[in-house]
Design a protein that fits this description.
Layout lengths: L3 H26 L1 H34 L3 H21 L6 H33 L1 H28 L4 H13 L1 H13 L4 H28 L5 H19 L5
Helix pairs in contact: 1-2, 1-4, 1-5, 1-6, 1-7, 2-5, 2-8, 2-9, 3-4, 3-8, 4-5, 4-6, 4-7, 4-8, 5-6
Length: about 250
């Protein structure tokens, strides 16, 4: 059954796809501008995701399921293991293979990550529209640097600008609404503790994205303005949560 919640979720997933596509377009057409500013989007998104996870989504999941702490750990470790697989266990020491796959393999990993983003939208919006919107603020904004990063990886791997843009779109953009649509029929039928456990998995994944996927890139930039961007992200998340009375 298609409900208003479905359309909220689908629209958010499509916005995420659009933001990723804009990132790909910007880096393809305005490479210098994109490379200089991508870190600020990453810093802001990290601030939002980490704050939202610890202040709203984790407490919400713990209220809904007694197994939430285990789910948080599993969600975090699952994304870690997926990233370790793509980064460490393909090609070995074959330099030619590494060169050819240096762009494609991370792009596939990013594609899987974006697919999981779509699943997170399904889970969080099924808990409540407010929870979904909170998660979406950080996730959507991190799609912009993700689109840029995917394009750069593919282009460095030897693909032309046109092919890099096309495959970056397939890997990082369209996979988010796809993940949402595939997961929706399964997630929408869950209630109570089961949904809370899935929410805890999402929380662990969100913490991973913010703390280990985005922050290391931000830390490479020595400018203090990246700290300001992250602080603004934290402030935005905190204000939204407080204005809603912690979602209750």
């Amino acid at each position: 059954m298609i409900t208003g919640t479905f359309w909220w979720t689908f629209a958010t997933a499509m916005i995420a796809m659009l933001v990723t596509t804009i990132g790909i377009f910007v880096i393809n057409k305005y490479a210098s501008w994109g490379k200089k500013r991508v870190v600020y989007f990453a810093a802001f998104a990290a601030g939002v995701l980490i704050s939202v996870s610890f202040m709203h989504i984790i407490p919400e999941s713990i209220e809904m399921s007694p197994y939430a702490p285990v789910g948080i750990l599993i969600g975090f470790l699952l994304l870690h293991l997926i990233n370790r697989f793509w980064n460490s266990f393909v090609c070995g020491h074959d330099e030619l293979c590494e060169h050819r796959l240096s762009g494609m393999i991370p792009a596939i990993g990013i594609g899987f990550h974006s697919f999981i983003d779509g699943i997170i939208y399904s889970v969080t919006f099924n808990v409540s529209v407010f929870t979904g919107v909170l998660a979406a603020i950080g996730l959507v904004l991190h799609e912009f640097p993700e689109g840029i990063i995917t394009y750069i990886l593919l282009h460095k791997g030897g693909l032309s600008k046109g092919k890099s843009a096309f495959y970056a779109f397939l890997a990082a953009a369209i996979t988010t609404p796809l993940g949402m649509l595939v997961s929706w029929p399964f997630v929408t039928g869950l209630k109570g503790s089961a949904l809370g456990f899935l929410l805890s998995l999402s929380a662990g994944a969100l913490v991973y994205v913010g703390a280990t996927h985005l922050l290391p890139e931000v830390e490479k930039e020595k400018k203090m303005s990246t700290l300001l961007a992250m602080a603004v992200g934290i402030a935005v998340a905190v204000l939204i949560i407080m204005s809603h009375g912690h979602g209750h």
